Amino acid sequence: MGLFLQVLTVLVITVSLQGWVALGCLEEERIALLHLKDSLNYPNGTSLPSWMKADVHCCSWEGIVCNSSTGRVIELLLGSVRNQELGDWYFNASLFLPFQQLNVLDLWNNSIAGWVENKGLLS
Predict the structure, then answer these.
(1) pLDDT tens for residues 31-87?
(2) In this structure, what DSSP letter does residue 105 have?
(3) From the CB of residue 72, how many other CB atoms can be counted at a distance below 10 Å?
(4) CA angle 37, 41, 42 (to 5 degrees)
(5) Would you state the torsion angle of the CA atoms of residues 46, 50, 54, 55, taken in this order, to the nearest 10 degrees?
(6) CB-based contacts of 44, cutoff 8 Å, min separation 6
(7) 77 near 50, Cβ under 8 Å?
(8) Quick one: three-class SS letters along 7-65?
(9) Rounded Cα–Cα distance for residues 56 and 109 (Å)
(10) Is 2 helix (H, G, I), strand (E, B) or coil?
(11) Which residues, at least 6 apart from 76, have a Cβ–Cβ distance to it below 8 Å?
(12) Residue 14: pLDDT over 70
């Protein structure tokens, strides 16, 4: 009976700790990343093909760095990802609001011409 309780204790601790391990970014940040991708690709671009809606592990997406303990996005390295043939990019700065721990934002060489009025995030 003692061995059973020890194994059960280890199992409970292991399952409990899984809630603390960040396996992917937070859902609200994943959704914001997909909206950002749509914005970068407007009207018909093909940038960031690794950013797929079905993939919940967005910390492994191109240009994304996450905090290993919280799973929050801490760096967006998106320099030169917008296809220059699409012309000027007018982005919605509110797309970045969900990223509460964002420390680095690289949007260099994406033909940024300005921004659109704050429209919030689309669901």
Answers:
(1) 999 999 999 999 999 999 999 999 999 999 999 999 999 999 999 999 999 999 999
(2) E
(3) 18
(4) 120
(5) -160
(6) 86
(7) no
(8) HHHHHHHHHHHHCCCCCCCCHHHHHHHHHHHHHHHCCCCCCCCCCCCCCCCHHHCCCEE
(9) 28
(10) helix
(11) 36, 63, 64, 99, 102, 104, 105, 106, 107
(12) no
Q: How far apart are CA 81 and CA 97, in angstroms?
A: 21
Topology (CATH level 3) of domain 22-115: 3.80.10
The residue type found at 28 is E
Residues in the chain: 123
Sign of CA dihedral 54, 59, 65, 71: positive
